[in-house]
Please model this.
Amino acid sequence: MNQIIDGKAIATNILRQLKEIVKTRKLSLTLATILANSNPVSMAYKKYKNIACKRVGIQCILFQPDSYKATKLIIRQNNDNPEITGIHIQLPLPANWQNWQINSIIQAIVPEKDVDCFSVHQIGKLFSHQREGAIASCTAVGIIWLLKKYCNSLVGKNVTIIGSSNIVGKPTAGMLLNEGCTVTICNIHTQDLKNYTSQADIIVSATGQPGLITPDMVKNGVIIIDAGIAFIDNKKIVGDVDSMTYQKASFYTPVPGGVGPMTTAMLIRNLLKCYLVQHEDPETKKMLDKIK
Model:
């Protein structure tokens, strides 16, 4: 059985519930989005995010700074603005920026407005398994959400993650460890990748390399979460997994329509969690905790 994990349908249901919370509780929420690098992936995500915000009834303000200093200033202003609920930085940042500049921008957001879980404060909570006030990485929590929908239990599962970024690979590994999984993280330096993927019960790939995972690299019945995204001819969106590989999977996420919509839905969910960090609102928290 090779069943599609319909991330789009699940995300649509989550957004519907989030909309009900915003409407019922009469919340006024604003997401500040900073887009300093307009590559195709960033522009696609911006489009989906704006649609999701409108659907839920959340204001989304776009900032497009043209320099490091301008970006830093925008973050500082939004940190201090009580009308801004959360701040989202669209990665990647410009390729000509130095590493210290990128890190400085990411860490400049105050933890209570960090919808992406980029700050060391939120990352520390993730890896120490602290739940109070914790805001998890959008893509990582979306992946866990999908796995829990299609897996009776994650305890004891052998998971191979391909990609060790702070956006997907590392936070996903942390969350899966918290679920009781045995996790192996691979990267561009890993030798004999097949040796790791062929033993995995679950594969999470997030490299942006089309066709990286082929049928000979996986065992029958594997669950494949394709979090990679790339553009072919600047228009066709593809993931990391060769389509023939799906025939050996018990469940798999397509690209597009799998992890991507969940990332967007979890961004909006994280915005509500930011609101709860900033405001004492037990009724909204109760409703948010009930989302399935």
Notes: DSSP finds ten helices and eleven strands in the chain. The longest helix spans residues 259-278. The chain has a mean pLDDT of 93. The two ends are 25 Å apart (CA to CA).
